[in-house]
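ARCHIVE RECORD
Type: protein–small molecule complex
Small molecule: cytidine-5'-monophosphate
Source of inputs: curated submission
Record status: active
Notes field left blank by submitter.
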Amino acid sequence: MVALDLPDASAALAMRDLLGDRVGWFKIGLRLFVSAGPDLLRRIGATHRVFLDLKFHDIPNTVAQAVESAGNLGVSMVNVHAAGGASMLAAAKEASSQFPAMKLIAVTILTSDAMDQAAARELAVARAEMGRVAGLDGVVCSVHEVAAIHAACGADFLTVTPGIRLLGQDVQDQQRVADPAGAIAQGADYLVVGRPIIQAENPAAMAGVILQQMRGL
Ligand code: C5P
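STRUCTURE (tokenized, with ligand):
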């Protein structure tokens, strides 16, 4: 999943066209959705699957309504923040049930959080279990928590992992990072990659390198 953290619709569409079918999914997050909104989302959705990453975190009723709006946009994945609690997750799940093709996942802890690794794993597993009980499809977590989450919630419970960097690459504001081969080795189901691709001199070539590493080449 390539994170289209770009300023506007024209930059996002240019990146979509540059990467083409090397990439199956695009992630549309706060920056792009706030600037370009549903219209751009539909245009990206015409060629690729879209993960709408707005990390809804509000009272249950508001989050449920936002999840319903995401479903009406036709996105393939949407997320809420697990810190919103069990009743919020349950309300989100009820709203998403009208859209069986849309995956609903919960953010456990931001990969930029410098929390101690053992504490992060414990909290991420607890939040993932809360998501599983509420009927969600999976979580966003760091690669370092993937194995523990699969052990606790089952191999089918999806793990979506940002914080991906090539070995030796600048981690920027991320903290709990891993390289593409390491993420696959840990059992991550989806890798989210933003700046390493969208800020590369040659984004298509960089996507190719990351895909090769994911395949263990
Ligand atoms: O540029 P970079 O590869 O660090 O981008 C990671 C993307 O994943 C960003 O769009 C960020 O908002 C998102 N994300 C994250 N950590 C989470 C959830 C989402 O980094 N826990």
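CURATOR ANNOTATION: Residues 3, 5, 29, 53, 107, 110-111, 140, 162-163, 174, 192-196 surround cytidine-5'-monophosphate (CB under 6 Å).
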